[in-house]
């Protein structure tokens, strides 16, 4: 089925000059995907285009989909997402998927930015020092996760695992969530997108549904994000995310 005019318009707004080779080799699949992702999904789960592209970029990193990431990162720059914001999407993924997976996306991002005439490195966004990162990270961790929950994590961890709790506070939160360039509510949406797309992280998805609610992202926003990720992550991971949403933010 050919994409509807509205689906075609959504597609062309993002990638006006992109001509997929798959449109020639696999036209039926491309038409089906474009009609769904750029038509039905945009109708049923509208999100500001900046938010939509940022969470989709985060999910594509978790999926390991570097080619689609390049295309969508170019679209992100086209609609006004800044180079700093694109880089922060990549940086935010590091504590959740690991540097091993992020490296290819970091190189792809650097190549894309250079092609767009952006000078690297970008201005630094770190707000902490080696002396302040744990304290600052613990503060934002408690803001996001909840003070009682964080205290319980430290209290319940065995003595030989306390270093992991310190890493969560100082590294995951202190090195990443305290950065400028993207605010905390947006970082939480990015984190949720990464965890949904990663698969096998259902307890963490549930935890970050709660964390999103704690920082002001409501059920409608989370449902729209989950729906926008569906074409890229598939139904099983989407349904797992919906289960967490319905449990912790019921309609």
TrEMBL record:
Name of the featured protein: Carboxymuconolactone decarboxylase family protein
Signal peptide: none
Pfam families: CMD
Carboxymuconolactone decarboxylase-like domain segment(s): 27-109, 164-247
The organism of origin for this protein: Oerskovia enterophila
Recorded GO MF terms: peroxiredoxin activity
